[in-house]
Design brief:
- This is Tetratricopeptide repeat protein.
- Keywords: TPR repeat.
- It is a single chain.
- The radius of gyration is 29 Å and the shape is elongated.
- It is an alpha/beta fold.
- Helix 9 (about 140-150) runs parallel beside helix 11 (about 175-185) and helix 15 (about 240-255) packs antiparallel against helix 16 (about 255-265).
- It is built from 27 helices and 10 strands.
- The model has no long low-confidence stretch (mean pLDDT about 95).
Length: about 550
């Protein structure tokens, strides 16, 4: 075999050293001398791909493949196609590379990357593990396997993989950051803090590590340090919406409402992914202009509970002279929200809304009205149960029950913090079953509904959840109860808005901002809602014991 041209050798060494300009010049010089030099075509294609010169890079890789059907050439093409989002072609190239050489670690890696993007996690995991077997020191393969496991909520396995990466290279920034995120999601904030600080020691301007350091500090109760970390993040990236939002949550949690509301407006910044349907383009968001004689739409955002909680601002809008106020909400809330006195119309989709002067998000109203803890609109009730619905449910709530208590122990499974806010099942509530003279009624819908059908031994629960069609039904049931016991979900807000007693079970970690700190009451639902907080992370049993003691004190 003749020796490689000097230009090629020098270019290859420059490429390995990361001197891409020099490498490109050398590869091009080689091709001027020998246009059919397959390795030069391949590696020049790799350099151009790394620079985002997609069209020429792909053409060069395909020319190299026309000369030699090589596994590494196919793997490089797969990488380019993957980066361009051409996933099916990337998978085909990766699989062809593996056919040629089953021991090509890069081919298995890019196959795994493609399968991850096409939502095939089990196959992707197999491919990552094969890539690691072939190239045990591949940091990227191990790190991305850890990310895959974290995405599948297999957090302990992900943490173990990230630690393996760091045993190979303790300064690998991606693994340091991802380890911190996995620990944060596992509610291990002290360990997460250490990982983020290690990442920042390697890269002091790592925006996301600094931002999530703030969140770790918040979870450990070091609020001043958390605020400083968020502030440093915003000094690096003033338009970083997630940092604004998390700073808002921190401030609101501490009851510093007037400081927090402006930052909360970042929740709808373009770079933040939102599942909410935005108002139609060309319509005008209300930001404080006079409303006398105007029409306004309260545009739905976030969850059912948010819609119920912030509907309280409707009378304040009417007091500003709004001529026609439309409230938009999801269909299950429509019949209940129609009982709101200050609303002229309720709509469930934009097609029901006519021409209007302004729209606003409900969670923006506290900012517009300058709401503080002392000025929260707290007149209760502001929603009502429809008499015909109450009558419909009356037969399901026996009169002979001494104390009628509703139960909701799980929220929506899609909530990012549902693992901490929802109970794992009914078992932790066992202390409640020992309280005499109480009949429990399940209002559970969705996840957990099946548990009510097979209640704990010795404690029958009247299962109403399966027959509940909407929140008007929920309200009609709550109206006939003596008490609702619930986790932080929409049913609790419905009880509060009805002015009915509600005991709220709150986790120690990831407690929502609206419940503030340490208090056992809430200014949002004064006099009717009592907060029971976990004493230790995940310990619902001890909370239930305190609740059982309080339940014994109630008199019919």
């Amino acid at each position: 075999m003749p020796p490689e041209p000097p230009n090629f050798q020098a270019a290859f060494e420059a490429h390995l050293a990361g001197r891409l300009d020099e490498a490109e010049r050398g590869y091009r010089a080689t091709l001027e001398h020998d246009p059919h030099h397959a390795d030069a075509l391949h590696l020049l294609g790799v350099v151009l791909s790394a620079r985002g010169v997609w069209i020429e890079g792909e053409a060069l890789l395909r020319r190299a493949l026309a000369l030699r059907d090589d596994a590494h050439f196919h793997a490089s093409l797969a990488e380019l196609l993957l980066r361009r989002g051409r996933l099916q072609e990337a998978e085909t190239s990766s699989r062809r590379a593996i056919e040629i050489d089953p021991r090509c670690g890069l081919a298995h890696f890019y196959l795994a990357e493609t399968l991850t993007r096409t939502a095939s996690p089990r196959e992707a995991e197999t491919a990552y593990r094969r890539a690691i077997d072939l190239e045990p020191r591949s940091l990227a393969a191990r790190n991305n396997l850890g990310n895959l496991l974290m995405g599948e909520n297999r957090l302990e396995e992900g943490i173990a993989v990230f630690r393996e990466v760091l045993e190979i290279d303790g300064t690998y920034i991606h693994a340091l950051y991802n380890l911190g995120m996995a620990l944060l999601r596992s509610v291990r904030p002290a360990e997460a803090e250490a990982a983020f600080r290690r990442a920042l020691a390697v890269q002091p301007d790592h925006r996301d590590a600094l931002h999530n350091l703030g969140t770790a500090l918040k979870l450990t109760g070091r609020y001043d340090e958390a605020q400083a970390a968020y502030g440093q993040t915003l000094a690096l990236a003033p338009d970083f919406a997630d940092a604004h939002w998390n700073l808002a949550v921190l401030l609101l949690t501490q009851g510093r409402l007037t400081e927090g509301w402006p930052h909360a407006e970042a929740r709808y910044a373009p770079q933040r992914a939102s599942k909410d349907i935005p108002p139609p383009a060309g319509t005008t968001q209300w930001q404080g202009k006079p409303l006398e004689g105007k029409s306004l739409v309260l545009w739905h955002e976030q969850g059912y509970g948010d819609c119920v909680q912030f509907a309280r601002y409707a009378p304040l809008l009417k007091a500003l002279g709004v001529r026609h106020l439309t409230l938009m909400c999801p269909a299950p809330l429509e019949p209940l929200m129609e009982t709101l006195d200050s609303v002229d119309a309720v709509a469930t989709h934009s097609g029901q809304i006519g021409q209007h002067d302004f729209w606003t998000y409900p969670l923006s109203l506290p900012l517009r009205f300058g709401t503080t803890l002392d000025t929260i609109p707290d007149s209760l009730p502001y929603l009502r149960a429809a008499p015909e619905r109450i009558e419909r449910w009356r037969a399901h709530l026996p009169k002979e029950a001494a104390l009628k208590v509703g139960l909701v122990w799980k929220g929506f499974a899609g909530n990012q913090h549902d693992a901490t806010r929802s109970l794992p099942g009914l078992a932790p509530l066992a202390p409640l079953w020992k309280v005499p003279g109480v009949t429990f009624f399940s209002l559970q819908k969705g996840q957990g509904e099946d548990e009510a059908a097979v209640p704990p031994a010795g404690q029958p629960i009247v299962n109403l959840g399966s027959a509940i069609n909407d929140f008007a039904d929920t309200a009609a049931i709550i109206a006939q109860l003596d008490l609702l016991i619930a986790v932080d979900t929409a049913a609790a807000h419905v009880a509060g808005a009805l002015g009915k007693p509600c005991w709220l079970m709150l986790p120690r970690d990831w407690t929502d901002w609206r419940w503030l700190l340490e208090r056992d009451d809430t200014p949002w639902y004064p006099g009717v809602m009592r907060l029971f907080r976990q004493s230790a992370s995940g310990d619902w049993r001890e909370l239930a014991e305190r609740m059982a003691d309080a339940l014994r004190q109630l008199e019919k």
